[in-house]
Specification:
Blueprint: E1 19-24, E2 28-31, H1 32-40, E3 53-61, H2 78-89, E4 93-97, H3 98-104, H4 113-121, E5 130-133, H5 144-147, E6 154-157, H6 159-164, H7 167-176, E7 178-181, H8 189-198, E8 203-206, H9 210-218, E9 224-230, E10 254-262, E11 265-272
Parallel strand pairs: 3-8, 3-9, 4-5, 4-8, 5-6, 6-7
Antiparallel strand pairs: 1-2, 1-10, 9-11, 10-11
Helix pairs in contact: 1-2
The structure holds NADP nicotinamide-adenine-dinucleotide phosphate.
NADP nicotinamide-adenine-dinucleotide phosphate binds near residues 134 and 136.
Length: about 280
């Protein structure tokens, strides 16, 4: 990545020996290396071996802002980078909305060399592909996310977008990515999941943004939410981590399964437990 403020594998990191508190479950201090082990181990409620599992990762200020100056990077710190990168490391596919791609400038390798080696040693392809959600196909094929991709990305789009978008743009995008339709006029999260699972991508890890999370939340298709709470009061017009035209008919209840704390930054993990 060149022009992004998203955490990247090459940004400042915390030392393996630096300590972070695990507050819940079982309060203890963990070194960075122990944190790696813990987050890379499959959590017991993760059913990805049996069925697709959809996790999201977000950062928010304490007053609920999902961005500062239009990007998420200024909310984070090196511990957030470490957690962000670890959550990415076990994914079969990384799902991201087009506006996040356009704003944050994804591109190039998404994982560090040690993370790629770890995946190789755990029988995973070294690079998880990106699956980019776009309802309009308003994506520039010359973006680094396409030209520098270590593996061919997918673009998840709508039948209506294929009808409306300029033919030459559709053709050029089809050269740099696999185009998959996941709805006629509206995105169907169940279809997103089944299309990805059909390609054997069962650990579906999403890095946002808010429109995408809002759509999945409204459809009750979020299995896991990792939320970093950044100790900043931002104010201003920033939106929250999920939004959309429609709330879910019944809000999804989530159970808190982990709390980590580094300085005043909290790392919360919630899991949806169906009745
Ligand atoms: N705090 C965080 O952790 C975090 C994480 C990620 C992003 N962000 C921030 O969030 C902002 C972007 O917000 P956003 O909500 O616009 O991001 P987004 O969800 O990444 O992108 C929205 C775009 O993705 C496509 N899309 C997503 N859901 C869709 C749906 N249900 N139906 C059809 N198309 C869909 C559309 O693409 P087309 O426009 O191509 O049709 C839509 O315009 C950026 O400022 C970014 O920095 C923050």
């Amino acid at each position: 990545m060149t022009s992004t403020s998203l955490p990247t594998p090459n940004a400042a990191t915390v030392e393996d020996t630096a300590m972070i508190e695990r507050i819940f479950p079982h309060a203890t201090l963990l070194s960075g290396a122990e944190l790696d082990q813990e987050l890379l181990a499959a959590p017991p409620e993760n059913g990805a071996a049996v069925r697709p599992w959809v996790s999201f990762n977000f950062i928010s200020s304490i007053d609920g802002a999902a961005t500062m100056d239009g990007l998420s990077g200024k909310l984070g710190n090196p511990w957030d980078l470490r957690v962000f990168s670890l959550l990415r490391q076990t994914a079969d596919v990384i799902l991201v909305g087009a506006a996040t791609i356009r704003a944050e400038g994804y591109g190039g390798e998404l994982l560090s060399a040690p993370a790629q080696r770890w995946r190789h040693d755990h029988w995973l392809p070294e690079h998880p592909p990106l699956a980019i959600v776009s309802g309009s196909l308003n994506l520039d094929p010359d973006l680094e996310v396409f030209t520098q991709a270590p593996v061919r990305p997918l673009i998840l789009t709508l039948e209506s977008a294929l009808d409306v978008a300029p033919r030459d743009r559709v053709a050029t995008l089809a050269e740099v990515a696999e185009l998959v339709t996941v709805g006629k006029d509206a995105l169907d999260p169940a279809l997103v999941i089944s299309e990805l699972a059909a390609r054997n991508y069962k650990r579906i890890h999403s890095e946002g943004g808010p429109t995408l999370l809002g759509t999945f939340a409204a459809a009750g298709k979020v299995d896991e939410l990792n939320l970093t709470v950044s100790p900043l009061l931002v104010g201003g017009p920033a939106g929250r981590i999920a939004h959309g035209p429609q709330a879910s008919a019944a809000a999804s209840a989530m159970s808190l399964t982990r709390i980590l704390k580094a300085d005043s930054m909290l790392f919360l993990r919630y899991v949806h437990q169906p009745n």
